[in-house]
Amino acid sequence: MRGAAMSLTAAATGFVVFLLSVPVIQGQDGWGVTYTSTQICALKGSTVDISCNYTYPSNYDQIQTRFWFTKQTNKGPVDLETDSDYTGRVEYNCHDDNNCTLRIRDLRESDAAEYKFRFIINQPGGKYSGSPGVTLSVTDLQVQVKGSWNQLELKCHSQCNVADHPSYVWYNNEQKRSEETAAIRVSVNSNSHYSCAVKGHEEQRSAAVYAPKLPSVSGSPSAEIVEGSSVTLTCSSDANPAATYNWYKKSGNRNLNPTRRKTQLVFRSIQSSDSGEYYCMAGNKLGSRTSKSISINVKYAPRLPSVSVSPSAEIVEGSSVTLTCSSDANPAATYSWYKKSGNRNLNPTRRKTQLVLSSIQSSDSGEYYCTAENKLGRSTSKYTVFYVEYAPKLPSVSVSPSAEIVEGSSVTLTCSSDANPAATYSWYKKSGNRNLNPTSRKTQLVLSSIQSSDSGEYYCTAGNKLGRSTSKYTVIDVKYAPRLPSVSVSPSAEIVEGSSVTLTCSSDANPAANITWYKKSGSPDLSLSEQTQHAPQLLLSSIQSFDSGEYYCTAKNRLNEATSQTVFINVKYAPKLPSVSVSPSAEIVEGSSVTLTCSSDANPAANITWYKENQTLPQRHGGSYHFTSISSEDRGIYYCKSENQHGSITSSSLSVDVQYPPRLPSVSVSPSAEIVEGSSVTLTCSSDANPAANITWHKENEDSAKASGQIFTITDFRAEHSGNYSCEAQNSRGRHNSTLHLTVVAGAWKLKAAVTVPAISLAIILMSAFLLIIKKRSSKQASEPVETPDDMIECPQIHPAERQDPSDIHYANVHFAKKAAQPQEHELHYATVDFSKKPTRPRRSKEESVVYASVKFNSARPTARSQEAAEDPMELYSTVNKKRNL
């Protein structure tokens, strides 16, 4: 019921639409505000009521203050009754039943806002505002126009959506029409005004729609308009809906702003051609109107003046001549006259468009011009020329350039003579009377690319119908750079060292050229000018081999320089002392590539012969002798000889030293007989090497060296000294090892020795020893021990060509035994030497590096000891050891 009552109240005071009629309650713990509606839409100028109910806890006293607000400041909400925007238009109607109504009269569009209710109780915490509040929208009734001006549809429209479809009232020029619908169709004229209202609320009538009124036109600036300035024309007309505008110039009907159609026509840089009368047309859907015209007068400075001369025919001295100056200008220009020879105004008092020369003289000949001027600027005409006629005066000749004349340049001779009518000219060279410019007969003679042949004396003649005159002579001296020099040599036959030779350089030039001689020797070439003092001849009185080379000369004057072609001087001479060298120049290693080079300066080139210690070496190509793989046998002293048909000479000697690694060492033991425990044993090792090898002794299975040097002595030989001993020969090029085996014996039949021998030599020695022993033993008792020599066999050095793989060690074992089972038979077992096994590392096991062979002899006669099957204790070991170079 409260919402319905509020709607009736609002309707009585103005057209109001409640967009939402659902009560809204805000609050908590007994505090609350209930608004009748959350959104209200009302027409501009109407009156609206906004109501609410509020509650608060029962333990609080009565309310002290109640008010409505839309704004807040730092002091809190602003009471609408104190807000200047609402002065005299708001009223509170609050009751004791906790109901309060806000009434706003004469609504404005600025009243659209959110309205909230606030109450305050005079107790702590007794303040409360109902939020969110009520949103008020304020709108106008509007007439919407559709269609064209002769058949329009008008619609009464509001942004407030009216739910109950009210009736409308239409007005035409304040007269009511019969239609009560929201839209009507009409035909309008330029004086029609249409408006509408909601029936029952006729006082809230919409704004009227109507055709444009008579447009008014204004110009800016309103003062004088100067060419180049910015000018704006503005057209305005009262119309609803707002009018669009078209601009026209009176001389035509073309729309001047067809795309923009705005109220203004802008000339950003106005020109004199823009002067004229302009008008505008304002129009909307209800009609159009045309403005009165506005005149634009563009002021501008004088244009370029034009000059005319009267009479236009030939001017004769004493006659009257009038010059007229005219120029387009706004405002009109005043004129001044001048002669080119000075800046004096020839009509200072009158300043009129004409200059009159009533009795012209020859001194009046010349160039005239005028100026046109107004307050906006000044402009100057072109020159106007006229002359008084008379015969030519004495011609004068000028030369350009006036400085030195250089060949190839452009030279202009100018002949000038004061004459009117103007003279024609002829040019002559003193050597003949031929006219040099018979066709053109102009004042100038142009030699576009002057040559030395053009040097001479020139003159000109000037003539017109009144007479003729001749100039004085003018001398032309053409300077030119030196021509290409030519060089000759004397004598022209073969040149031998010590003879006299003359070189001559010649070149044509103006001024005369200075000659400078050069010998090609690099950059820069050697200049010979100091010793020759720029003479055209260069004398080599006693020519030497170092004088051979390419010679040329330069001819130079201040204009340029020219260089001759080169001439080659080839001085013949005997060979000079040869220089010899070896490559590489560092240490020479056996097997490397080595080149001996002999060079000797000679002309013609010398033949080279190489010698080694007075022995001629095979002839090789050029001055080099090459060893593809040099050997130690190539060591020695070398020299070369250089010779040609003029003599021969021998070089200094050159020593060639070839380095190589140690050869397989040769080892020996002393004493060479049986090594008895406690005796002194001396081991000797030697190896050929370059540089000389260092010798180191090692014992098998011991890490440290036993001794160094060629000789190793064991003073007190014990059983623990038995074993393999190796000597190592080493230099900077490599190393080589040899090994021998030493065994100490306690009885007469014990002998063990090891030597380094080739396998074949070892077999022969062993076979010889076996046969000798068999022969001796055949005459002894079977029970007697067999004596064997205690000699150690020294292995001969193995030549490099005979070397096998240096990693092999080979043992040969000879064993003698007695056998009773076969008393009549001798058994011979041949030694087998195996060179096939090769160890994979320097320290080898005996299984990989030792091969044993046995030779056994059995006695033919049985003895008392034969049943014991005792073996002969004599054993012979031989070892050949070849190790790889490190």
Attribute tags:
Immunoglobulin-like, 4 helices, 8 domains, 886 residues
- The CATH class assignment of the largest domain is Mainly Beta
CATH architecture assignment name of the largest domain = Sandwich
**Total number of β-strand segments?**
74
SSE-based structural type = mainly beta
- The CATH topology of the largest domain is what? Immunoglobulin-like
Shape: flat
**Number of domains as seen in the coordinates:** 8
Terminal-residue CA separation: 125 Å
> Number of helix segments?
4
Which bin fits the share of residues in helices? under 10%
Unreliable spans are 1-13, 18-22, 747-760, 778-886
- Structural Rg: 70 Å
Which range does the strand content fall in? 35-45%
Largest sheet: 7 strands, mixed
What is the multimeric organization of the chains shown?
single chain
Mean pLDDT: 79
CATH superfamily of the largest domain: Immunoglobulins
